[in-house]
Design goal:
Mean pLDDT: 79
Oligomer: single chain
Shape: elongated
Largest sheet: none
Radius of gyration: 28 Å
Length: 182
């Protein structure tokens, strides 16, 4: 049987102390301790790169309007068509896309609508069919063509917080209210 002697207790204690001291020394040498403050980021550090783009589904690699269908009222599609609900961000988004060389409205005489968003997303997905490569696209990626225009314009226009609508000359519209012509 194993006898606990003072020599063995001293040996086990010394080994345990040595291991703890070594771990603590390594942590201090690396500058990482529980009570040490983290170094604040500077301009030279820059922001950490995003791991995904909010307008590309991280699970499938498909482009999408991450805000989903604007008109999420619990009524039929026919009722929605009779009383459409427009997102005030769509007009500036549409102008941005047209300014980048991509007129995306099905009918330029009508305001940009949910069907135009859906059609645009389908065009972008058709232009960028490599879903695995799409998953790697970050926030400020240069991917070219309609996909890049979509990411830039969506990032600038569709993400505008509601409380900033008025400061940008926009206002929340009521269901059935048609926005002024673009």
């Amino acid at each position: 049987m194993f006898k606990l002697t003072s020599k063995r207790v001293l040996l086990v204690s010394s080994l345990t102390f040595g291991l703890l001291a070594g771990a603590l020394g390594a942590a201090i040498a690396a500058g990482v301790t529980d009570d040490s403050p983290t170094r604040p980021l500077t301009e030279e550090d820059g922001p950490p790169p995003p791991t995904y783009n909010r307008f590309i589904r991280p699970d499938t690699g498909e482009f999408w309007d991450s805000y989903g269908a604007w008109d999420n009222r619990a009524i039929s599609d026919e009722e929605k068509a009779k009383s459409s609900w427009y997102n005030p961000r769509w007009a500036p988004f549409s102008k941005c896309m047209a300014g980048a060389g991509f007129e995306t409205r099905k009918d330029r005489a009508l305001p940009f609508a949910q069907s135009d968003v859906d059609g645009l997303v389908a065009q972008v997905n058709a232009a960028r069919p490599d879903r695995v490569a799409n998953k790697a696209i970050g926030q400020n990626a240069k991917v070219g063509g309609i996909a890049e225009a979509f990411l830039v314009c969506a990032g600038k226009r569709l993400t505008l917080p509601t409380e900033e609508l008025a400061a940008n000359g926009l206002r929340q519209l009521e269901p059935g209210e048609v926005p002024a012509s673009e």
